[in-house]
Structures are given as C-alpha cells and as structure tokens.
Amino acid sequence: MQLNKTQASPVAGHASRVWTRAIAAASLGILTAIAVPGPAMAADNPYQRGPDPTRDSVAASRGTFATASTTVGSGNGFGAGFIYYPTDTSQGTFGAVAIVPGYTATWAAEGAWMGHWLASFGFVVIGIDTINRNDWDTARGTQLLAALDYLTQRSTVRDRVDASRLAVMGHSMGGGGAMYAALQRPSLKAAVGLAPFSPSQNLNGMRVPTMLLAGQHDTTTTPASITSLYNGIPAATEKAYLELSGAGHGFPTSNNSVMMRKVIPWLKIFVDSDVRYTQFLCPLMDNTGIRSYQSTCPLLPGTPTPPNRYEAETSPAVCTGTIASNHTGYSGTGFCDGNNATNAYAQFTVNASAAGSMTLRVRFANGTTTARPASLIVNGSTVQTPSFEGTGAWTTWATKTLTVTLNAGNNTIRFNPTTANGLPNLDYIEIAAP
Asked: Which of 162, 218, 272, 427 is catalytic?
C-alpha cells in the first residue's frame, strides 16, 4: 500500500520529513512487543533471530543467546583478532560485524566490552587490533574488510556466519575506517560510526545503511562534523544520526547502554532484515540520554543483490605468473602473483545477466612504493588504464572501484601491465549493478 507518513521529532534537533513510500503493513514497526519464551522465526524472513524484542530486552546488557569467544593471531591482514559468537547452532547462520577501535587504541582497552553483548543478540563479532596503532582511517577500513574475509572464509566459526550479511563498526579513526570499508564494499548490510573521524573521504557515495553517533561535548569529532557527514550521505541511502547527551569523545570505550540500545536495532534491521526492531527507532522509543536524533524513517531493510565474485586462482581465470598464498589476507585459496613483465596478464571470465554499465571492484596488494598501472581490456578493447598504487605491504589489500560496460552473457576482463614492474597481486574481482 502507499503510506503518506509525517514523522514528528520525539527529541530536540530531530528534522521532520514527509515520506510517501510503498511498504507492507508489517514494515511499519508499530507493533506491541510481547516477550515470548522461544525464538520467533518468521516464515518470510529466514534471518530473524531471537524472541520478539521489548523495550527492556533491547536495553539489557545481554540478549538471549549464550556466547563463547576465541582469539585470532596476527598476520591475516589485520592485527590480533577476537571473535565472539552465539553457541546455538539450531537456528542456522548469523550475520556478523567487524569492529575496530580508535587511533592508538587497542581492542582490549576500548571495545572488548561490546563483544559478548552483541553476540548475545545473535551476531558473530570480530573485534580487531590494527597492524599499526597509528593507522589512519583507510588502513583501518582495509583491515576491517580483511577481518570479515578471514571470519567468513578461514576462521574456526566460519560455518556459523552468513557471508552475505555483514556489517562494520568503529570508533573515532576506526569510525572513519568503517565508513571507508562501507564505501569500498557496498554489498555490506550496515555501517556504524561511533564519533567517527573520516579525514580521507566524504560519504557522498555511501550506499550502505549508516548510523552515526556523536557526543554532545566531544571536541575531537564534534557533533557539527558528524552532522556534516550525515548530511553528505545520499537521500536514497538509509541513515540515522544520534547525539548522546553529556557525552565526550570516549563514550564508546566502556559499557554504554544508551549507545547499544540504538546500535542493536540498527544491526537487527539491516543485517537481519528484522522489522520487529523498527519500533525502537521509528519514532525513537526511548530518548533517555539522547539529545537529538534524525533518520530516514521508516527504515526499510533492502535486499540488494550481492556482487558476483571471481577469484583470481579459480578457473576459468588465467594468471600469467604464479597462484601464490605466501602473503596473508587474501580471499579464497590464493591470489595471482603475475610475472614482472608487460606481457604478463590476469584475465577473468564473468557473466552478466543483462547488458549495461556495471561496477567492477578489484582487490589487490602492492607492497612497493611504485604504482603499477594496467590496461583494463574488456572483451578485447582497452577501456581505461587504472593505476594500482602502493598499499604499504604485500599483506595489505585494497579495493579499487571501476565502471565497465558488459554484454549480456560471458565477458572477458583482462588486466595487462603497462610497465615492466608487472601487475600488483590480484586477489579477486567483483561485478555488481551500479
């Protein structure tokens, strides 16, 4: 049906907006929350986990799932990692979130309190330390993506994780890292920035549903700076902004129930497509500790088609060089380590359901300080010459986003190096609708 909805602000600073959107009645989220003893699995939503939520259950410091944890050593494209997960295996796989702390901070000192808390609500969580505690936002974002790849492909709990339902979160410089990760991988379901510092990018191209939280008295990343980030997110992208009363820059660094009772519904809505949780944000059910709030209510979870991934080591891909696995952080079973020559190439065969413009994402590593340009050849024609800059180390992977036009059916995508240095190491490419 068509709903013409005018949302009034429940707290100071909330911008009123009029929304006319086609939604199903169940998406309104205006339901009487009833606690039930067991999981309420909706037949039309295989991702829904846990009993029907209530105001008290969302504010609780623990959900209904028992949890366990394990550690991850360094050398996987990020520093040490800490994984928290529900022990229940009867409800299928869970969505996951990767979290990174702020500048110079460690997971143990800043974020560990979130691990079991989020896992108890039905998420697999990986909190990471960074390779260098002075890493900036782009490096932290790259490491968040490496952590998600590790979690879903090589971790001991990978069978518990739904690799199509992933999210990122971070504090301060880590919040900027979460924004970078979401910009690089728009197939993510949600992003959360906690007092985010994002010096390397704006959010004008953001397609991932994004929640930004600010502290009223934060002089490091001020509410005004975070509001500016929020305003830069396109209108077509779901988003929310909250300013926490009396909070400073360190509000995410210790048990914070005000923050968690907003973050958990956001993750539930967009990672689990669970509209039972919209009642807590549309309108804001509990404004205790919240000075101002804005959002794109009614906050409807989408179901975008995940990108098609083509691994460089998997036939019919061709690598003129070696399929290697000596640098960690790669996806799948290896990567293409091409010969250092202009005639060494990597080629992928991809399938498009329809002809047209597509987004091409190339995951690569270049451990040198010299960029490695290449001709991008689509179906035999050179269409552009992207440059693959240095990533700082061969274990540091980055993603370059390009646009290509494909034919319906099979297409060949080839990268030919234009210098004797050859190609960077290529991990995979992804094809998705723009």
From this structure: 218
